Amino acid sequence: MISKKINLFLLMFLIVAISSCRTIYSKHNSLQSTGWRLSEFVKNDKKEFINQDAVININFSVDKINGSSGCNTFFGSYQLEDKFQIKFGPIGSTKMICEDYIQKYEDRFLSNLDKVQYINIDENSLYLYEDEANYMIFHRFQVIDNGGLYSDSYTKSIWVASENADCQGVSEQKCLLIKESNDEDWSLFYDDIEGFDWEKGYEYELLVTESKVKNSPADASSIKWKLVKIISKEKQ
Fold it and tell me: CA angle at residue 149 from 143 to 154, to 5 degrees?
């Protein structure tokens, strides 16, 4: 019992410390009319980036939630007990059969959601804590307007290599080498990242906004990235 109280105290201390560099919004405006996409699970302080093909997002209204848990749709309620504590109510979902790797993420997400006790939020990221070593990280996704989604952009982390490479688009060009997860291989990126000035010899982790380009030309990407901030820049 004493150990449990100490752990809860440490978690509260951690969140208060984090709030010194992240904005914690008030009970009344922190979540309403926002949407977030899951990017990472953290278990025992170890991060696991989810496959980008697995679209898991959560949308908040006044006291309700809904979203995609992978291949199914979920829905339920939530209650903010103060600016840090949150409780999700009974969660329901559709029951479609998912691909195995999507099902793994879906089961884990819904299980973790039921265990969430604390919340932290800044401009671009949402953190749902089970405890100080186990939590989920989301990036801002669609904004909700009168119950309907009107934007299809969201923020995500990407990595940019210290070297670029020859590539063939409409003509010969130099392409950035990027990856969307630390455990992936580098791949060619044929477009520019808006607002980002690449410097050879440095490896970057970036937070970018990804949006879909409607009616894009056949020789152009249907995805557009815009720099939100440089998370890290390391000399190689």
Answer: 45
